[in-house]
Structure formats: structure tokens, C-alpha cells
């Protein structure tokens, strides 16, 4: 059943993104930013973690999870380190994913030639 709910929740997030582009005429960059902010707000309200527990990868794979990670890390570190934890928590939680994206993007650029 976890696969079903992951598919449904991930699909709903994607449908929301597509509607933002088609109906609201937002650019892909604006849509992505909106979804990141939505994930951050949902985590700030304490609603994103239950969604992750319910849907698994359906909530952790879409871009909304990045906003969740930013706020979640900031809140966790703020509780332990105070106000400075807001800044350090953002980098601590998201650094592995961002570093991986940079490294794999660089490796792909070395292996493949762009067509254009």
C-alpha cells in the first residue's frame, strides 16, 4: 500500500505544479520556487513530517521536500544552538544533497557532450 500512497501523493504534488504552470501561467522557475516555499511552510506548521510518514517517497522525492529539509534543519539546529543554528542548520541538512547534485552534474558533463 505504501507504493500506492507514494504514487498518489507524489502525483498530486506534480499535478499542483503543472496547474501552476498551465492555469496560473507561472514559469517553471516560479513554479519550483512556489513548491519549495509550500514545503517549507508545511514543515513549519508541522504538517510535512506526517505526510512523509504516510507517503514515503511520494513526499520526499518532489521539490517540496527541499523546502521541508531547509526549515526542518533550521528548526532542529535552532533548538540546540540558538539563533545561529538557523543558518547552520540549513547548510547541515541540505549540504549532502546539494553536493551530490554538483558532483554528479560535473561527472555527467565530463562523460557526455551537449548537443546544440
From TrEMBL:
InterPro entries: Spore_V_AE, SpoVA. It comes from the Bacteria. The chain crosses the membrane at residues 6-24, 31-48, 54-71, 83-112. Keywords: Membrane, Transmembrane, Transmembrane helix. Pfam families: SpoVAC_SpoVAEB. This is Stage V sporulation protein AE. It comes from Aneurinibacillus thermoaerophilus.
Amino acid at each position: 500500500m505504501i507504493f500506492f500512497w507514494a504514487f498518489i501523493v507524489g502525483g498530486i504534488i506534480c499535478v499542483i505544479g503543472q496547474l501552476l504552470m498551465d492555469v496560473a501561467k507561472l514559469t517553471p522557475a516560479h513554479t519550483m520556487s512556489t513548491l519549495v516555499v509550500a514545503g517549507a511552510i508545511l514543515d513549519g506548521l508541522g504538517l510535512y513530517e506526517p505526510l512523509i510518514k504516510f507517503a514515503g517517497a511520494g513526499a520526499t522525492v518532489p521539490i517540496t521536500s527541499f523546502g521541508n529539509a531547509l526549515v526542518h534543519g533550521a528548526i532542529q539546529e535552532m533548538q540546540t544552538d540558538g539563533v545561529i543554528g538557523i543558518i547552520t542548520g540549513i547548510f547541515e541538512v541540505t549540504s549532502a544533497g546539494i553536493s551530490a547534485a554538483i558532483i554528479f552534474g560535473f561527472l555527467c558533463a565530463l562523460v557526455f557532450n551537449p548537443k546544440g
